[in-house]
Amino acid sequence: MITNVSVIGLGKLGATMAGCLASRGFNVIGVDVSEKAVDALNSGRAPAQETGLAELIGKNQERIRATLSHLDAILNSDLSFVIVPTPSDKRGAFSLQYAAYAFEAIGKALAKRDSYHTVVLTSTVLPGSTRYGLLPILEKFSDKRCGKDFGLCYGPEFVALGTVIRDYMTPDFCLIGEFDERSGAVLEAVNCRVALNNAPSKRMSIENAELAKLALNSYVTLKISYANMLANLCEHIPGGDVDVVSDAIGVDKRIGRRYLTGGFGFGGPCFPRDNVALSFVGKYLGASTQLLEVNDNYNRTISPRFVERLKRYLRRGSTVAVLGLAYKPLSHVIEESAGMYLCLALAGSGFRVLGHDPLATVEAEAALRMHALVADSIGSCLQDAECVLVTTPDDVYKALGPEDFIGNKESVTVVDFWRCLAESIRHHPAIRYVPMGRCIDDGVAISKLDGLWGGEGN
Ligand SMILES: NC(=O)c1ccc[n+]([C@@H]2O[C@H](COP(=O)([O-])OP(=O)(O)OC[C@H]3O[C@@H](n4cnc5c(N)ncnc54)[C@H](O)[C@@H]3O)[C@@H](O)[C@H]2O)c1
């Protein structure tokens, strides 16, 4: 039974996996090229920001140590997880630059090891990357053969920032892409000890697992876009309400309710880029991937389409407040965030834009410089705003009352993308409340629909 494991790459996912593995009794050696990350872990601090991580590492410090040396880690553990960045390149593919560097160091270390060791790539990669892009590096630098001297798996995780610990330790299933039966069995045994919920394993070829990882993420984004499209349709149907429709169709077992709440576009470090990468590889291979491209385009045009609508009601130069700049609540990550794109689209259309986010102030300020101001309090953000757009269903925004929005103004328009604001705001006489995903003007919607059925021949 394996008790010593390494985690190579101590970022948001790797550091969290290190803490979780230690909490399940493994002796963990963390490796990073960043001295700061190694020092943090060695002194019992979290090298990355993630909910609950600092406590987890603090509690399990005696079973965790970190090093800058891949050799030290490979010689003193029997399995290594590799979780280094795989940034998108210009083509939309995932670059193997960091992974190749790590695999070279692991290969050199394997050359000095005299017993079997299993290497597990956890970073998100395109189909073919592990076997054709990285395995040759391991064999070249170790001068050893995969399957005989060492094992190899592709073992991705399905985790969301903010809930990485929970997602990693109670997965719906463990996805294992195995070079051979032995490699897969070793990883499955480790996974079984980490998962608290007897999650089933799905073992398959490395390429099928690489595809399954991307396919799952991409499918979820299709569902999100479908719900967003449904929300838009509801705005034009008399009495239309996306929550009512989603609650009904979500009961059907073929569909399910999760990710079906029409709201705003999807963003973050994974979803958008996974779609683009899957489309890239599909096109390269000659498969038809239009569905992925349509979805990506639909998502990317949500903000500009909304701004076009807004321009009909709001004069140029008006002050618009955007509440929610991170890609989701309880996060400081602004990568590919719909709220950020909205700020840029508004500024580009001549509005004065003030943004706010409970956690992402610093990140948003740097990214929006020259385009929009980021307020450090909700009060200063809302003070002059003629129109307020609530882009994330954050508890901080749900708790706002009518006075917060109105301030000293006579009236204010509040657009609620997630229909999450307090009841008192919805019916306040000084607030024009616009819940996206619900019919905004029944009169207009009725006359439009009536026009469809009232003509001759019907
Ligand atoms: N963060 C997530 O929730 C998440 C979820 C699923 C998949 N992933 C995938 O996991 C991978 C890592 O993501 P992340 O968010 O943890 O990245 P990150 O940027 O937070 O961390 C990566 C870490 O790897 C280190 N590193 C780079 N090269 C190295 C090397 N040769 N040896 C040792 N360490 C090295 C970096 O210094 C950094 O600390 C990516 O492929 C990402 O797509 C991440």
What's this entry about, in short?
The protein has 458 residues and is an alpha/beta fold. The chain has helices spanning 12-23, 35-42, 53-59, 70-75, 97-111, 129-142, 164-169, 181-194, 206-234, 242-249, 271-285, 290-300, 302-311, 338-348, 361-368, 378-382, 395-398, 402-406, 423-426, 442-454, and strands at 4-8, 27-31, 64-67, 79-82, 117-121, 150-154, 174-178, 201-205, 319-323, 352-356, 373-374, 387-390, 412-416, 431-435.
Commentary on this structure:
This protein starts with a strand and ends with a helix. The protein is α/β, with parallel strands linked by helices. The mean pLDDT is 96. α19 links the parallel β13 and β14. The strands form two sheets. An eight-stranded mixed beta sheet has the order 3-2-1-4-5-6-7-8, with helices on both faces. A six-stranded parallel beta sheet has the order 11-10-9-12-13-14. The chain has 20 helices and 14 strands. α9 packs across α11, α9 packs across α12 and α11 runs antiparallel to α12. Bound molecules: nicotinamide-adenine-dinucleotide.
List the SSEs and their pairings.
Layout: E1 4-8, H1 12-23, E2 27-31, H2 35-42, H3 53-59, E3 64-67, H4 70-75, E4 79-82, H5 97-111, E5 117-121, H6 129-142, E6 150-154, H7 164-169, E7 174-178, H8 181-194, E8 201-205, H9 206-234, H10 242-249, H11 271-285, H12 290-300, H13 302-311, E9 319-323, H14 338-348, E10 352-356, H15 361-368, E11 373-374, H16 378-382, E12 387-390, H17 395-398, H18 402-406, E13 412-416, H19 423-426, E14 431-435, H20 442-454
Parallel strand pairs: 1-2, 1-4, 2-3, 4-5, 5-6, 7-8, 9-10, 9-12, 10-11, 12-13, 13-14
Antiparallel strand pairs: 6-7
Bound molecules: nicotinamide-adenine-dinucleotide.
Nicotinamide-adenine-dinucleotide binds at residues 8-14, 31-34, 37, 48, 83-86, 98, 101-102, 123-124, 157, 159, 161, 164, 270.
